Amino acid sequence: MNVRMADSALSIRTLTDDDFPALGRVLAAAFQADFREDSVERDRKFLEADRSHGIFDGDELVGCGGILTREITLPGRLPTPTAAVTAVGVKPGHRRRGVASLLMKTQLHGLHEENREAFAILWASEGSIYGRFGYGALSSEMLMLDLPHRAPFHPWVRTGDARIREVTREEAMPVMEEIHDRVRRTRTGWLNRVEGSWLFHLGDEEHDRDGLTAYRYALHPQGYAVYRVKHDWQPRGPQNELHVREIVAETDEAYAALYRHLLDMDLAGEVKFFTSSDDPILHMITNPRQASRARADALWTRIVDIDRALPQRRYLSDVDYVLDVTDDLCPWNSGSWRFTTKAGEATVLRTTDSPDVSLDIAALGSVFLGGVRLTVLARAQRVREHTPGAVDALSAAFLGDRDPHCPEVF
Ligand SMILES: CC(=O)SCCNC(=O)CCNC(=O)[C@H](O)C(C)(C)COP(=O)(O)OP(=O)(O)OC[C@H]1O[C@@H](n2cnc3c(N)ncnc32)[C@H](O)[C@@H]1OP(=O)(O)O
């Protein structure tokens, strides 16, 4: 984990409200987008100025990155504070001088020194960027699912007889906010949402739509679905694509009913949904092979303070091992820690005992949400076992009871 030293001409500070127009231009340049005046207001609502940093070359803002104050639900149904890292961008022409490295170090050291969130999460634009900063890959994944129109369910799948109503965004929003807030507390990887995150997640200006329709909102008494339509009128009949943004339901029956509503939509050809890797739909349709699916990495997780982070979730079995951890960027994590779990709860204490397992902080980040098996990281030679059986036992303890999934990109 080698972190580049910043060019000495650079300086970094937190942003103020006045910096947002310049920030908008840096982000547009970084993401190869056209700058839009209206993005400044959305950024103001979405980003938190006092947790956002600008990196300056003299007076010029050349790079940025922000932390969103969020809760994420950890294994054990535990909503827990996390630093959601976003809006990382460096102007072309100022890259590979250590701008992003300076930002990463400032964020992580700040969280540690101020005793803030014990771990950070992000969505990576490219898979090659964040491993060097100790973020664990694939800590959650998503399933990119294509389901054929009218795919039948097994007879045991109950959908109930509640009517699903298609309503306006204005009518849907307060209902969705309430349902989402109840459901997210029970789902590993889900975040709480504030006003800015709803605006960002369900942004629905013309330029957000990528040629598709505006969002449609389907309300069930115990859930909702949001989707767009891509029109596709074929000579042999309509084959519209339903692009589902999310299906959120408080009961399995409501979840099935909302899926059924989308699958049976007249004029549709297929339903596309970026969903959780353990979406039960594959066991609900009679022919799972009809569902074409691909997996992609979603959240990357960075443990900031190992002794504060690991006890924040629950574990599936009891273990007692010494972990030898390497962390160049956050050296306070390096060294040996006794990791003990009992009845689901963990303690992490400094020790001089000899280690049972050696691993780096990014490997711990990968397994933290409970979706990645430590045994797989050992087979990838990322984790070394010194005591036979330790990796198997730790792997089982760290697994969650469902796959972590983050339904929103931030
Ligand atoms: C959470 C999010 O917001 S994800 C969005 C990230 N932003 C983007 O993708 C926008 C486009 N890209 C950028 O703005 C920049 O290239 C960034 C932010 C990814 C990297 O910024 P830089 O200031 O160039 O990074 P920095 O100079 O600190 O590089 C650190 C190391 O990472 C490597 N690195 C940086 N970016 C990349 C990349 N895209 N792919 C592979 N390696 C990379 C560098 O080569 C360097 O390694 P080295 O020290 O061994 O030479």
Automatic annotation (TrEMBL):
Pfam families membership: Acetyltransf_17, Acetyltransf_9, SCP2_2
GO molecular function, one term: aminoglycoside N-acetyltransferase activity
Keywords for this protein: Acyltransferase, Transferase
Domain N-acetyltransferase: 10-154
Binding, acetyl-CoA: 88-90, 96-101, 125-126
GO BP of this protein: aminoglycoside antibiotic catabolic process
Enzyme active site: 130, 410
Domain of life of the source: Bacteria
Family per similarity comment: Belongs to the acetyltransferase Eis family.
Subunit structure, as described in the record: Homohexamer; trimer of dimers.
Protein name: GNAT family N-acetyltransferase
